[in-house]
Specification:
Helices cover 65% and strands 0% of the residues.
Length: 68
């Protein structure tokens, strides 16, 4: 943690990669569904899966708002 309130390494990383937020949202949904390389997450709590889906929803909503 830094004292600089404007420093946000996560946002800087996302901004530096084209379509990063879309990739993150897609990966979160795959994790929640236990698809592909995330098959080991099949037996994760539904509560955790709901959090991953909600996070993907937030990311996608944020991206839609940026377009308007």
């Amino acid at each position: 943690m830094t004292d600089d309130g404007d420093f946000n390494p996560m946002q800087e990383a996302l901004d530096s990669v084209p379509n990063a937020s879309k990739v993150v949202a897609k990966e979160l949904r795959m994790m929640a569904a236990g698809e592909d390389r995330y098959q080991r997450f099949t037996y994760i709590s539904p509560w955790i899966k709901n959090i991953w889906n909600a996070a993907a929803d937030i990311i996608e909503d944020y991206e839609r708002q940026k377009l308007h």
